[in-house]
Amino acid sequence: MILGNRVRLRAAEQEDLPRFVAWLNDPEVREGLSLVLPFSLREEQDWFEEMVKGPAAQHVLVIEIRDGEAWVPVGTCGFHIIDWRNRFAELGIALGEKSHWNKGYGTEVVRLLLRHGFHTLNLHRIYLRVYAGNARAIRSYEKAGFVHEGRLRQAEFKHGEYVDVLIMSVLRPEWETNDTGG
C-alpha cells in the first residue's frame, strides 16, 4: 500500500475489472483518456493478464478513499512506461467515480505517485500527457508540481477535430525543492 492523507493506492485485482470496465465505458470518464472505443469485460481481462506479467513497477494501482471504516475504489493510476536507463516514467491517472471529482483526490494521488517514483523507484523525470482543453486536470498537475514542457499540436482526433496534447513534467531536483509531503 502507498498511503496518503485521504487516499491509498493498492494493487489492482481481478475483482476490480468490472468496475474498471464501467468507468472506461462512461463517456465523461473516457473524455480525458486516449480511449475511443468501449471496452468489454473480456478485453479488460486480457489486458489484466498481460499487465500482471509485466514489471511490478508498471502495474496499475487502484485509488481508494476512506468511507467510514471501509476503503472505496474511485480510480486507477500508475506508471505506464518506465525507462530505467534514463530514469524517467510516464504517469497516468483516471478518477472513475465522478461523485468524487473536484475534491482534490487527484492532486493527492499525483503527489503520492511522485514521491513513490522519486523515492522508491529512483526516477529522475516523471512526465504526463494531457489534452489542452482539460483545464481541471492541468490545474491538478500544476498544483502537484508539474511544469509545462511542450505542446503536440493537433496530435489527437477527438469529436471530429484535432486537439493539442500538452506534455508536462517534474524533475527530481524541482520536486525535492518544492515537496510539501504526500
User: N-to-C SSE series?
Assistant: EEHHHEEEHEHEEH
Shape: globular
Helix count from the secondary structure assignment: 6
Rounded mean pLDDT is: 94
Instruction: State the domain count.
Output: 1
- The portion of residues forming beta strands comes to 35-45%
Structure, explained:
This protein has 182 residues and is α+β, with helices and mostly antiparallel strands. It has one domain (2-178): 3-Layer(aba) Sandwich (Aminopeptidase), CATH 3.40.630. Helices cover 31% and strands 36% of the residues. The chain contains six helices and eight strands; from the N terminus they run ββαααβββαβαββα. It has helices spanning 17-24, 27-30, 41-53, 105-120, 135-143, 172-178; strands spanning 2-3, 7-11, 61-67, 70-83, 88-95, 125-131, 147-158, 161-171. The chain has an eight-stranded mixed sheet with strand order 1-2-3-4-5-6-8-7. α1 (17-24) packs across α3 (41-53). The longest helix has 16 residues, at 105-120. The two termini are 14 Å apart. The mean pLDDT is 94.
Brief synopsis:
The chain is of the alpha+beta class and 182 residues long. 31% of the residues lie in helices and 36% in strands. The protein has one domain: Aminopeptidase (3-Layer(aba) Sandwich), CATH 3.40.630.30.
Topology:
Blueprint: E1 2-3, E2 7-11, H1 17-24, H2 27-30, H3 41-53, E3 61-67, E4 70-83, E5 88-95, H4 105-120, E6 125-131, H5 135-143, E7 147-158, E8 161-171, H6 172-178
Parallel strand pairs: 5-6
Antiparallel strand pairs: 1-2, 2-3, 3-4, 4-5, 6-8, 7-8
